[in-house]
Amino acid sequence: MKLFTVDEANEMLPRIRMKLQMIRELHRGLDQYKELARAAAAASDKGGGMVGGSAYVKTLYEIGKLTTEITDIGVQVKDYSRGLIDFPSVREGRIVLLCWQLGEPDEIEWWHEIEDGFAGRQRL
């Protein structure tokens, strides 16, 4: 597990923010395909296809690709629609998560215990 200092996490935010914004937009776009996906699933046993299916699959692929790019550097993606991420870090000798989401200031201001999640956020 990669561990980040607050400074390291802050340095990465501009690059990650762009990817999170793209993920959020792509994720929002999936809504338009949900009904089509349900219909395709219902028709699959009859060999049915899906109008717009390639766009749905492409959107899922792009979300997965961007998510992988973020997680490969050690950052945890927690919520696509909010652009919520965590950076594993060490605080007072234990592993905690530095927490940030789209719309917050350009630097990390929050952390939480691993088991507490977003609801347990505390100011740095």
Commentary on this structure:
The structure is a single chain. It is elongated and about 60 Å long. A hairpin with a 4-residue loop joins strand 1 and strand 2. The chain is 45% helix and 21% strand. It has one domain. The protein has three helices and five strands. The chain has 124 residues and is α+β, with helices and mostly antiparallel strands. A five-stranded antiparallel β-sheet has the order 1-2-3-4-5. The model has no long low-confidence stretch (mean pLDDT 90).
Question: TL;DR?
Answer:
By secondary structure, the chain is an alpha+beta fold. It has 3 helices and 5 strands.
- What's the SSE pattern? HHHEEEEE
Structural class: alpha+beta
The N- and C-terminal alpha carbons lie at a distance of: 21 Å
Gross geometry: elongated
Helical residues, percent: 40-55%
As laid out across the biggest beta sheet, the strand order is: 1-2-3-4-5
Rg over CA atoms, rounded to whole Å, is: 18 Å
Major sheet summary line: 5 strands, antiparallel
Proportion of residues in β-strands: 15-25%
Mean pLDDT across every amino acid position = 90
Q: Got a strand count? A: 5
Poorly predicted runs are: none
The overall number of domains is 1
